[in-house]
Amino acid sequence: MPKNSFLIALFLFLVNLASAQSTVPVIRAKSDQIHIRDGAFLLEGRLNPKLKPDRYDALRSRAEKKVVFYTDVDSIAVTVKPGSSFDFVVLHDRDSCFQRISGNARSYTKACAGCVIDQDTIPFTFGKGNKIHLQGSINGSQLLDLMFDTGASTTVLYPSAKEKGVKLAFDGTTENAGVGGSSTRQTSSRNKIQIGQLIWERESVLFVEQQADKADGIIGFNLFSDKILEIDYDHKRIIVHDRPFTVEPGYSKLKLSYSGYLARFPATVMKGSTPQTALFVFDSGSDGSIGLDPAFAKRNGLPGDMEELGTSTSHGVGSGSFQNKIVLLPELKIGNSLLTHVPMTVPMPEGNEFTSDNVFGMDVMRRFNTIIDYQQNWLYLKPNSLIGEPYRKPVNKTWIIAGVIVIVLLLLGTIIYFRKNSKKQPRLS
């Protein structure tokens, strides 16, 4: 029997032995690129024959749902129930790619007997760059400082978390891709996360070897992907709703669409009298105000003749980086609100041919009390007490360097002066 056929037969035998799934479907692919439709999310990925199986964790749901797996020539629709999994094989070239779609992600429970899960409040603090910081523990650790990132789809831990007693059993790897390349990260699939009285079981965690964000890790939106999330910046609290509720007057209602895991909503930037409407990502892991996709900026002639405030450098998970120009945007319209004189970051054209997303960071989003309805895919925004706060000013590195040079020259001058004068002092006999 050929080696490839033997592996398929062995995999099918083990899966049938371990589960009630009587037969394992086989689909085909010519390309290693795949897409997964999970509710409103359309995700991209690649086949990996080295993983046996290569597991996709479906976003948590309280009811069964359909997940569709697409190759370039075939597809399979899977009904995923909470707590269940589904196995199949993708034949690609000479490789057999063993796939598993898992519904293990569950809603949180409470660490109290008889507690009703209806509405739960999580206090937060503002960290560096006005990012949202929560306190929680993982696998019975000490209290951790965890940043809440609406642009992250998994829990991430940094080395400081291990120093606070987090123990991880690594059982997989993933490619963490971004600007400047990609890095292979270790993952752990069965972890207990607790924030206050709220407990998530069997959660995946990605470990990053470099410390970042002045936190012990990141909590992604995926913990709440079956909820309605209310972020109240006035009172520094997140309210988690289990079912729909009546939104009070004063909120703008915007439809959410998705690019991969990222929720996007429409907003309008003004170049002179010409409005440019686009979809923007709300990224609470960003401390900036507005960041433009290079392709969108080039297509619409931005920034044009806008006032320049400075420059910045963007880094990714790899070693690469690129330069940005920071300009002053005259007007920005979000829902029913008009913001004026907002700093906007636009990548410089040289060498920036990549495609990303238009992004709103915390310097804009903290000004709006926010309701994210992940159940029906709506975003509600209402200006809060921070709406008139000044925006963060970009750091002008040229002036910093010039200032450092001046200080160094003054110090050198002082040293030379005292040395010369010390030689003129009369000697005491």
Provide structural commentary:
- The protein is mainly beta and 429 residues long.
- Helix content is 14%, strand content 45%.
- It has helices at 3-18, 159-163, 294-299, 362-365, 397-424; strands at 26-29, 33-38, 41-46, 54-57, 65-70, 75-80, 85-92, 95-102, 109-110, 119-123, 125-126, 132-138, 144-149, 155-157, 172-178, 181-195, 198-207, 217-220, 228-232, 237-241, 252-255, 257-259, 262-271, 274-282, 290-291, 308-315, 321-334, 337-347, 358-360, 368-373, 378-383.
- A hairpin with a 2-residue loop joins β16 and β17.
- The radius of gyration is 26 Å and the shape is globular.
Number of helical stretches of at least 4 residues: 5
Content of β-strand: over 45%
State the distance separating the first and last CA atoms: 103 Å
CATH homologous superfamily label of the largest domain = Acid Proteases
What is the strand arrangement across the widest sheet? 12-13-18-14-17-16
| CATH level-two architecture of the largest domain | Beta Barrel
Structural class of the helix and strand makeup? mainly beta
Overall pLDDT: 85
Low-confidence runs of at least 5 consecutive residues: 17-21, 397-404
Rough shape? globular
Most strands sheet:
6 strands, mixed, barrel
* Overall tally of domains: 3
CATH domain class of the largest domain: Mainly Beta
| Quaternary status | single chain
Tell me the helix content.
10-25%
Give the CATH topology of the largest domain: Cathepsin D, subunit A, domain 1
